[in-house]
Amino acid sequence: MGTAITFKRPDGKDASGYLANAARGNAPGVVVIQEWWGLSDQIKGLCDRFALAGFDALAPDLYKGKVVPYHDTDSANKEMNSLDFMDATTQTVRGAAQYLSRNGAKVGLTGFCLGGAVTIIGSVHVPELAAGVVFYGIPPEQAAKPADVKIPLQAHFANKDDWCTPELVSGFEKAMKAAGKSLELFRYDAEHAFVNEQRQAVHDREAAELAWGRATEFFRKHLG
């Protein structure tokens, strides 16, 4: 349904990604950020699904062509740890947001795992955004303080998550509330990465569909 494209970062460098356009010409945009596996077919599928829901969706390729197989967590960890999160967010993700906003459309940001952390960083450092939806990822405070978040956020977390733990989530929620920030936070009795239907060991269809409905409704409210 979608297509591979090249777009410009603010620094003038080229970045690549996967774009799926909505049927209508003046659709709002959503930037979709990968898990630590890379720009997988599953993430491209989510872009297609956003397009069917009425959004132009662009997933920038933060790993520049590298996609890690699901069983290889060591390689995924290595790729994630070698990623410059601030450059990825303030340049590649911001370039994607600028691409989607070029006709005056409002743009949101969403991401999963690594992409959830990038979504929170983007909510602080990417001025083109109007809303963000976070899936089971939180960055270190030095990358993005809750007090500095500039847009409404919705967040989805798993109770059986040993990476983005319930304790970490509670700390984030408390800091956002203390700073008077707009946050809708949902917890699911599911595993980390429960939205990923390609990973049967962790996929929870009921939780994933509930989260999807909430996310698209939130974006419609804030992006039009």
Automatic annotation (TrEMBL):
<dbReference type="InterPro" id="IPR002925">
    <property type="entry name" value="Dienelactn_hydro"/>
</dbReference>
<dbReference type="GO" id="GO:0008806">
    <property type="term" value="F:carboxymethylenebutenolidase activity"/>
</dbReference>
<dbReference type="InterPro" id="IPR051049">
    <property type="entry name" value="Dienelactone_hydrolase-like"/>
</dbReference>
<keyword id="KW-0378">Hydrolase</keyword>
<feature type="domain" description="Dienelactone hydrolase">
    <location>
        <begin position="17"/>
        <end position="222"/>
    </location>
</feature>
<dbReference type="Pfam" id="PF01738">
    <property type="entry name" value="DLH"/>
</dbReference>
<dbReference type="InterPro" id="IPR029058">
    <property type="entry name" value="AB_hydrolase_fold"/>
</dbReference>
<protein>
    <submittedName>
        <fullName>Carboxymethylenebutenolidase</fullName>
        <ecNumber>3.1.1.45</ecNumber>
    </submittedName>
</protein>
